[in-house]
Amino acid sequence: MTAPMTGQARQIWVDADACPKVIKDILFRAAERARIRLILVANKMLHVPPSPWLAAVQVPGGFDVADRHIVEQLQPGDLVVTADIPLAAAVIDKGGHALNPRGEFYSQENIRELLSMRDFMAGLREGGVQTGGPAAISHHDRQNFANRLDSFLVKWDHGA
Question: What's the distance, CA 108 to chain centroid?
Answer without folding.
Answer: 16
